[in-house]
Design a protein that fits this description.
This protein has helices spanning 2-15, 70-79, 92-99, 110-116, 130-140, 160-183, 191-204, and strands spanning 25-29, 34-37, 51-54, 85-89, 121-122, 145-148, 152-157. The two termini are 28 Å apart. The protein has seven helices and seven strands; from the N terminus they run H-E-E-E-H-E-H-H-E-H-E-E-H-H. With 205 residues, the chain is an alpha+beta fold. Strands 3-2-1-4-7-6-5 form a seven-stranded mixed β-sheet, sandwiched between helices. Helix 1 (2-15) runs parallel beside helix 6 (160-183) and helix 2 packs parallel to helix 5 (130-140). The protein has one domain (2-204): L-fuculose-1-phosphate Aldolase (3-Layer(aba) Sandwich), CATH 3.40.225.10. It is globular and about 55 Å long. The structure holds zinc ion. Zinc ion (ZN) is lined by residues 23-24, 88, 90, 127, 151-152. Zinc ion binds next to loops.
Length: 205
């Protein structure tokens, strides 16, 4: 059941330190509408009643108040019809990049180029605002994971397991990037190698 899937993913996010307290939200798009976590819920400890069903415009169909970031979820589903699941959280390493307005673009790990190419930063805007939606959507046209300046990150995929894997891998990328810079002078792959990996990434699609 969809609600059980969201509850399980919330627990996994919490256990993997990918979310804290009541921050973040999860949604899954189905034929019935969008199942999204309610406003003010803790992703690590969700109950069935913490998940609200909305129509594709974000209007609540079931009881409860959908997350205040529902506008962002709705806009993403409209822009990318192949996307069926979204996770927005504030993981510590990705959010540290968000605090510094730094994208993850150093080509230091071949697998991450294959997976993300890079992870851009969307310009800051107030949480839940239309401006935040506009700033984030700009990057979502081409990317499945985006850092949101002074805020957190968002990952989207065809299903919830893949969205989880994307936010988990992005956080790992951020962590390795931070530690390799602490060790000093991480070595970027040469442009030629990066181009080969991007070509491989695009043929995999
Ligand atoms: Zn947030």
């Amino acid at each position: 059941m969809i609600k059980d899937k969201i509850i399980d993913i919330g627990k996994k996010l919490y256990l993997k330190n990918l979310t804290v307290a009541t921050s973040g939200n999860i949604s899954i798009k189905t034929e019935e509408g969008i199942y999204i976590t309610a406003s003010g819920t803790s992703l690590g400890n969700l109950r069935e009643e913490d998940i609200v069903l909305t129509d594709l415009e974000g209007n609540e169909i079931s009881q409860g108040k959908a997350s205040s970031e529902k506008k962002l979820h709705v806009a993403i589903y409209k822009l990318r019809p192949e996307i069926n699941a979204i996770i927005h959280t504030h993981p510590v390493y990705l959010t540290s990049f968000a605090a510094c307005h730094k994208s993850l673009k150093e080509p230091i790990m071949s697998e991450n180029i294959l997976y993300f190419e890079d992870i851009p930063v969307a310009k800051y805007a107030m949480p839940s605002s239309d401006e935040l939606v506009a700033n984030t959507i700009k990057h979502i046209k081409k990317r499945d994971v985006v850092i949101m300046a002074n805020h957190g990150a968002i990952a989207l995929a065809d299903n919830i397991e893949h969205a989880f894997s994307k936010i988990e891998t992005a956080e790992y990328y951020a962590q390795v990037s931070i530690f390799s810079n602490i060790i000093g002078n991480p070595v970027s792959l040469p442009k030629k190698e990066v181009a080969k990996l991007i070509k491989l990434k695009n043929t995999k699609k």
